[in-house]
Design a protein that fits this description.
With about 120 residues, this protein is mainly α. It has helices spanning about 35-50, 75-80, 100-110. It has a domain at about 25-50 and about 75-115.
């Protein structure tokens, strides 16, 4: 399921099904310093296998001891960039970017503490 931030999203107030149900919230965010901080935190949680701060009941062991849990090597292409892996200074050098777009990309990269 894909959900856009401008679209309506809701879940039932009462679950009447016979099996568990769940909803994944996977934010797609613009290049802002606060978004970069969120991505950096999520990346760190993923790498350590711990639950992220915004997950209900945070503080548990998460998936760190799960056999076969996802690792950085399992993330490909666009997913790597979305998780803050492989973001580089070269992202600022795309032809046709405005000064504001370059500044946003630079701030995002710096907030992720990406090293070249």
């Amino acid at each position: 399921m894909f959900w856009h931030g401008d679209g309506v999203h809701a879940v039932s107030a009462t679950h009447i099904g016979k099996a568990e149900s769940s909803v994944f919230y996977i934010p797609a965010v613009p290049l802002t310093p606060s978004s970069a901080g969120y991505v950096a935190h999520q990346r760190s949680s993923f790498l350590s296998g711990s639950p992220p701060e915004d997950f209900p009941g945070s503080g548990g062991v998460g998936e760190r001891d799960f056999v076969g849990r996802g690792l950085e090597k399992d993330i490909y292409d666009a997913g790597r960039k979305a998780m803050g892996f492989g973001v580089s200074v070269h992202d600022e050098k795309v032809a046709g970017l405005t000064a504001g777009q370059v500044a946003a990309r630079r701030a995002f990269r710096e907030a992720l503490a990406v090293q070249d």
